[in-house]
Amino acid sequence: MTTRTVDPTQELAAFLRSRRERLDPDDFGLPSRRQSRRTPGLRREEVAELAGVSIDYVVRLEQGRGLRPSANVVEALAQALRLPPDERAYLFNLAQQRPRHADKPATTGAPPLARLVTDLSPLPAMLMNHRYDILAWNAEMARLLPDFDTLRPSQRNAMWLCLMHPAMREFYVDRERVVREGVAHLRAAWAAHPQDQALTGLIAEFIAHDEEFARLWNERDVKVNGRGGKVLRHPDVGVISVHFEVLMPLEDPDQRLLIYRAADDESQSALDRLCARGEASLP
């Protein structure tokens, strides 16, 4: 399985089909008639009625026949399919009905942001772009992630670390959820940056070398996580529960500032021990 530069028409068709098939007719008060339903979810005519468009229009959209729906039609389809905010934004991006982000992502951290990452110590922090490339980090983050600061620049990518780095295979206690959320983020970024060949190549590499990523990518989940929690299994200090926050600077919207905070006293104690180990190893 491979992926190429985004073909918005074909991806729009596949996305609409996948979201229609996920819906339960019972949630809409529609007759189930399950014996006569040959495919899961709503029928095309039911989506057409809910969106206020013709059945033929929905058919042509789902067949990828070159239509570019207006913003009003996209909004009507999003409401008919009951898309959550991230999936609604994805649909608008595919329909090319909202401004695109810059297709030249940052490859180095903006100096003020890189200084901010350092100033955030002792909180572990790092700076990334939409591809999850890691642009800057502080000492605490380097101590938290295995071998993080010894990697080649091409390997300093949060998703690459999670999927490809041997030491990271058991690093996340809830690995499946972390990978799923990472895939959902990359799919949103892929639609928003259709000309980003580096991102396309990265996704193709993950699909080719990681079965879990390939399976999740094919599910077409879309989600951008700006806040949440993770449980880390550090080889030196044990389990650490963290809350994370992702901030997007107005001056540099392609850069994302990730900050970790200990979720409980035991985790704070583990982070303190980790920092003390790092300071003791300094010359």
TrEMBL record:
PROSITE patterns: HTH_CROC1
SMART domains in the cross-refs: HTH_XRE
Domain of life assignment: Bacteria
Disordered, as annotated region: 23-42
Annotated HTH cro/C1-type domain residues: 41-88
Name listed for the protein in its UniProt record: Helix-turn-helix domain-containing protein
Transmembrane segments: none
One Pfam family cited in the UniProt record for this chain: MLTR_LBD
